[in-house]
Specification:
The structure holds 2 protein chains of 2 kinds.
Chain A (H helix, E strand, L loop, with lengths): L2 E8 L8 H16 L6 E7 L6 E7 L10 H15 L10 H12 L1 H14 L4 H13 L6 H11 L5 H14 L5 H10 L3 H18 L1
Antiparallel strand pairs in A: 2-3
Chain B lengths: L4 E10 L10 H6 L5 E5 L4 E8 L2 E7 L3 E7 L21 H12 L9 E11 L2 H9 L12 E8 L2 E2 L8 E19 L2 E19 L12 H18 L5
Antiparallel strand pairs in B: 1-5, 1-6, 2-3, 3-4, 4-5, 6-10, 7-9, 8-9, 9-10
The chains are: A mainly alpha, B alpha+beta.
Chain lengths: 212, 242
């Protein structure tokens, strides 16, 4: 069985007036498809080569090539963080992160994951913003990026900021994946803050119940 | 069967969230200090590189993954031909030996996903003869002589031959014909130099799937051998449906 099939050829000399529109539609279709199942591909437009054609490049889940974040996604991420810093972040209330992170993340999660990890570990962003990002990562519903999001959340359980550790616990609760139990149980053992330890313990119990 | 030449080889190991970095990983595995080390803060990436077995070895360490990349020395000679690491698969032997040594050591991390990547080329007279060569390996190569920019990518997964339960191997390959020409950079800008060379280009990304469980540490070498077999299957026989 073949997966992640992509074939592309350009036939020069022929200019179709509807070409640009069709390509935009194709990209949208690929993006919708990408959110639906494992082994799917994500599409984006890239300017290329020899015959000045614009091509649709597919990012497939079976690819392990390291990807760099595009300037466009980086700029949108920066804008999202800037907007969030101007807002009051409260549970149950929408903000720039709840509005925009899912779309940005799903677009090219392989490229965005290292940037988010650095932001959460070393960035000067407010801890409350970092925690909000983690909570939102747990809420995104996208099968392809599930294990990457779980990875970030598990990793964040051992950061030095209590806000961030709490956000990671809530994110894992929302993600609802018992595969995270190993890291959560370790986090309960190591957690110095009584309140956070109790919250993490609740997440462990919830996930254990889900397994039964 | 094409005579593939190796341009670069890569081994990627995906890390667990609790991975503890080995600050001396390069020294421990290669046996000497790297020529250069860099830390790129925006992506938390540590890069070390140096000369290795007639080429250039690079270790890229990110929180999520470790990549060992073995490249031909840049940029190529005045005939416009790019340097290579020699015939495939023999050209990859120095990297594979290094990886086998690493797999036996304590510094090899717990992992759920491993990948071997190879960039292979074989010379072609021109674009059209390159497309004729591609027909030996893949379906759908255009017959139209005006056609250009043909690119074909497909993943043909198969069961792992290691016997590890549930393990499959992704065999992702990307095929094209490329026009290669040296570009000289100076303070006046970039200038194309030397003759143009056409090559059939094959990018192989052979890997274990994203959502598999932990790969047993004592079986890492078997898995790497299985990945190499996957690369040989595709580079020898292509992806035609049988």
């Amino acid at each position: 069985m073949s997966e992640d099939f992509q074939s592309q050829t350009s036939q020069p000399k022929y200019i179709d007036p509807l070409e640009e529109l069709r390509k935009s539609v194709a990209v949208m279709v690929f993006q919708v498809v990408s959110a639906s199942s494992l082994g799917a591909q994500r599409g984006f437009l890239r300017e290329t080569g020899e015959s000045d054609t614009r091509t649709i490049e597919l990012i497939s889940d079976s690819s392990t090539k390291a990807r760099q974040i595009t300037p466009e996604i980086q700029a949108r991420l920066d804008a999202m963080l800037h907007a969030a810093c101007q807002q009051v972040i409260e549970d149950g209330k929408g903000n720039a992160i709840t509005d925009q992170l899912a779309e940005l993340f799903v677009k090219d999660y392989n490229a965005i994951v290292p940037v988010l990890i650095t932001l959460i570990e070393h960035g000067r962003t407010l801890p409350v913003i970092k925690a909000e990002i983690l909570k939102e990562l747990g809420r995104i519903r996208d099968v392809s990026s599930h294990s990457s999001r779980r990875w970030i959340l598990e990793h964040a359980l051992s950061t030095s900021s209590p806000f961030v550790r709490d956000g990671a616990g809530l994110g894992l609760a929302r993600l609802g994946d018992p595969a995270a139990l190993k890291y959560l149980e370790k986090a309960v053992q190591d957690e110095p803050n009584v309140e956070i330890r109790s919250d993490l313990q609740s997440v462990v119990q919830e996930l254990k119940q889900a397994v039964r | 069967m094409a005579n593939w030449t190796l341009e670069s080889a890569r081994l990627t190991v995906f890390l667990e969230p609790n991975f503890t970095r080995f600050p001396t990983l390069w020294d421990d595995v290669v046996g000497e200090e790297p020529e250069t080390s860099i830390f790129q803060k925006p992506t938390a990436m540590r890069v070390a590189y140096g000369p290795f077995a007639g080429g250039r070895l690079q270790l890229q360490a990110q929180p999520v993954r470790l990549d060992w990349i073995f490249d031909a020395p840049e940029p190529g000679d005045e005939t416009g031909k790019r340097n290579t690491l020699g015939a495939f698969p023999d050209g990859a032997t120095p990297l594979l030996e290094l990886v086998y040594r690493w797999a036996k050591s304590n510094s090899f991390p717990e992992t759920r996903r491993i990948a071997l990547g190879f960039t292979l080329i074989t010379p072609a007279l021109d674009r059209l003869s390159g497309y004729r060569e591609l027909r030996n390996f893949i379906d759908g190569v255009p017959a139209n002589e005006e056609a250009s920019d043909f690119l074909y990518q497909v993943n043909i997964p198969r069961k792992s031959t290691t016997g590890i339960e549930g393990l499959t191997i992704n065999r992702l390959s990307k095929w094209s014909v490329m026009l290669v020409r040296l570009m000289a950079l100076s303070s006046f800008g970039a200038v194309l130099e030397g003759p143009e060379n056409s090559v059939v280009h094959l990018d192989l990304d052979i890997n274990t799937p994203q959502n598999f469980g932990m790969i047993p540490k004592e079986r890492i070498r078997e898995v790497i051998d299985d990945l190499l077999s996957g690369a040989l299957e595709i580079s020898n026989s292509g992806t035609h449906s049988k």
